[in-house]
Amino acid sequence: MKRIGFILIIALLNSTLLFANIAKDTIAVESKHEAPQQLDSIFSTKESNKVVVDTVKQWRPDSQKGIWLGVIIPGAGQFYNRQYWKLPIVYGAFFGCAYAITWNGRMYTDYKQAYVDITTTTDYTNPNASFIKILPKGYTIESMGGVANYTSILENRQNQYRRNRDLGIIVTVAVYALSLIDAFVDAQLYDFDISPDVSFNVEPQIYNDINNQRSAELHLSFNF
Q: What is the pLDDT along the chain (224 residues), one digit of tens a residue?
């Protein structure tokens, strides 16, 4: 009986060790299968991040879109091209032109009305007349050289302010066209490398002339 009990204990220990080894091998095999999957997920994440980064780096403005935006809204082309520092210049030029057109147009209307009134009336003493109101403070028609001379001044001022108004309109159109050209050129040259890469090289050189005499020179070169 003692011998049989001893044999059963030995068999039980062997079976326990066998199951332990099987379980160990199973865990090792499963870990081998899971590792590539984890690596695949890591690499796929890196690839997706790389795609996103490449997409951001490869963005460049469309010149046609930029110029059409500028046609609809002045300055929108510069905003689309991300040239935000140019917006104050563009809008400042437009506001300046608008002010010049408005002011010269108002002065032209006033002097035109004064010129029409002084040439169609014989009463030059009416204080409510437009050609009297437009006189500078402290001046009279007599101090301006009389009716004839004052009429000539009103005509010249009228023509002067009309020219200035028309010139303001021309400048406004030019500013508008330049803003479109600038938006188009900026979009075309968006990824053009304009970084300053100027280098200065100094190299000594030795030459042999036809008489086999050596001469030393200093070679200077610029690289752009």
A: 445 544 545 554 455 444 445 445 544 444 444 444 554 555 555 555 554 544 456 778 888 898 899 999 999 999 999 889 999 999 999 999 999 999 999 999 999 999 999 999 888 888 889 999 999 888 899 989 999 999 999 999 999 999 999 999 999 999 999 999 999 998 888 776 555 555 656 677 676 666 666 666 666 665 65
Radius of gyration over alpha carbons of the chain, in Å? 45
The pTM of the full predicted model, rounded to 2 decimals, is 0.60
- Asked if residues 184 and 162 have their Cβ atoms less than 8 Å apart, the reply is no
Q: Per the structure block, which two tokens stand in for 29?
A: 């095999």
Contact 78, 90 (CB under 8 A): yes
- Report the alpha-carbon distance of residue 190 to residue 60 in Å, rounded: 7
Domains of the chain, residue spans: 1-59, 63-188
Beta-carbon contacts of 202 under 8 Å, excluding residues fewer than 6 positions away, are 218, 219, 220
